[in-house]
Design a protein that fits this description.
- The chain has one helix at about 35-40, and strands at about 1-5, 10-15, 20-25, 25-30.
- The chain is of the alpha+beta class.
- It has one domain (about 1-45).
- A two-stranded antiparallel sheet has the order 1-2. The chain has a two-stranded antiparallel ribbon with strand order 3-4.
- The model has no long low-confidence stretch (mean pLDDT about 85).
- The chain binds zinc ion (ZN).
- Zinc ion binds next to loops.
- Zinc ion (ZN) binds near residues 5, 10 and 32.
Length: about 60
C-alpha cells in the first residue's frame, strides 16, 4: 500500500516504512525515525495536510 509520510510528504510503501505511529486511531507511516519523532512532538501540525506538506506551506 502506498502511503504518504505526513511530515516530509514522501510517498513510501507501508511495508517499507522505517517507523509507524498510531495517533487518534489512525496509523501513520514514516520514511525515517526522525520524521516520526517530529510527528510525535506535534502531531496536530502534520495531520490533515497529507499531500500538501512542503511546497504549499509558506512558512515554518
Ligand atoms: Zn519522512
Amino acid at each position: 500500500m502506498r502511503v504518504t509520510d505526513p511530515v516530509c510528504g514522501m510517498q513510501i510503501d507501508s511495508t517499507e516504512a522505517a517507523a509507524t505511529e498510531t495517533f487518534q486511531g489512525r496509523r501513520y507511516y514514516f520514511c525515517s525515525a526522525s520524521c516520526r519523532d517530529r510527528f510525535r512532538a506535534s502531531p496536530e501540525r502534520y495531520i490533515g495536510n497529507e499531500g500538501a506538506v512542503g511546497h504549499s506551506r509558506g512558512c515554518c
